[in-house]
Amino acid sequence: MRETTNNSASVTTLARENVQRLTPYQSARRLGGNGDVWLNANEYPLAPTFALTAQTFNRYPECQPVEVIRRYAAYAGVQPEQVLVCRGADESIELLIRAFCEPGKDAILYCPPTYGMYSVSAETFGVEGRTVMAKEDWQLDLPAIEQALDGVKLVYVCSPNNPTGNLINPDDIRSLLESTRGKAIVAVDEAYIEFCPQATVAGWLKDYPHLAILRTLSKAFALAGLRCGFTLANAELIEVLMKVIAPYPLSTPVADIAAQALSEQGLSAMRQRVADVTNNRQWLRQQLEQCDCVEQVFSSESNYLLARFTAASSVFKSLWDQGIILRDQNKQPGLSGCLRITIGTRQECQRVVDALRPLPGAKSSVNDSSINNNSASKEPM
């Protein structure tokens, strides 16, 4: 046993120093839990059904499956040469860093509170992750960003922003694109754009050669388990990314199902999901605003709601114990007391409301409910 332990320690020390120090992204599945109402990963609550049509599993797949590219380009309103398909939008985040950032020299920039994979990916590749806090309304602080651009090769802007749910002012994105022209790539993360399609910046590609747009089938297309995402950009930028992408990023079954999801029938089903989620989101927001333990529910253009709670850690633990798994955002900058709730089915949303209604609010006495006796240290996060 002693020899095994020594060997393990030796392997750890062989890892790059930044990897040794790295805290991996705490995905919903890593955090675990034994719930039956999973509202912590912004997934669609019901699984679509597909039948495989491709059976050439003895052959390597196409690097960039033609039918998937063609259909996504038509859906997004761009040209096929402006589309790169990869293993989820998370791979797009990494491809951009690998292609444009020199480790130990260049930096990326992002504006917390926002998606955590920007920082994790930068640290993984030994690239500085530079932050400029969003303003109180979660919009870009353009003067602060411009002062921080020295050495920055890549700027990430998430719109709608995860976890806050708000759209970034399009005029501010344009200003950012102008100030970074010839200096840095601006990546606009549109993972949730299907819930507000009018807000896409895909039509701006003709004006900005340094614009990249990140997309995914994980949310409104209900295919989080497929791991299929896209980068939209001009052909020159796509060609750069093609130099660093894996030779076979999409398996044959993934490409098969993705093409089906992007058919006319698949797009119609996606838009019906968006309508259902939007209706449930509106209903849930109204119900949350009537719960004593809820201090504020923020507007959202996505498939989740961010809310601020009285005794958020105790609320989180109480629902966790009832099998309702939410996402704690309490440690994100500016989000003290906040939990994020994915929009589930109406029945799942009702479960959330029923669990929250008995919980006390800020004006309640500590003795009114034993829930306040639960300490934050018991929170399974």
UniProtKB/TrEMBL annotation:
Residues recorded as bearing N6-(pyridoxal phosphate)lysine in the entry: K219
Taxonomic superkingdom: Bacteria
GO biological process terms, semicolon-separated: L-histidine biosynthetic process
Record InterPro entries: Aminotrans_II_pyridoxalP_BS, Aminotransferase_I/II_large, HisP_aminotrans, PyrdxlP-dep_Trfase, PyrdxlP-dep_Trfase_major, PyrdxlP-dep_Trfase_small
Pathway membership: Amino-acid biosynthesis; L-histidine biosynthesis; L-histidine from 5-phospho-alpha-D-ribose 1-diphosphate: step 7/9
Amino acid composition bias (Low complexity), ranges on this chain: 364-381
Native species: Rouxiella silvae
Protein name: Histidinol-phosphate aminotransferase
Subunit structure, interactors included: Homodimer.
Record field: catalytic activity: L-histidinol phosphate + 2-oxoglutarate = 3-(imidazol-4-yl)-2-oxopropyl phosphate + L-glutamate
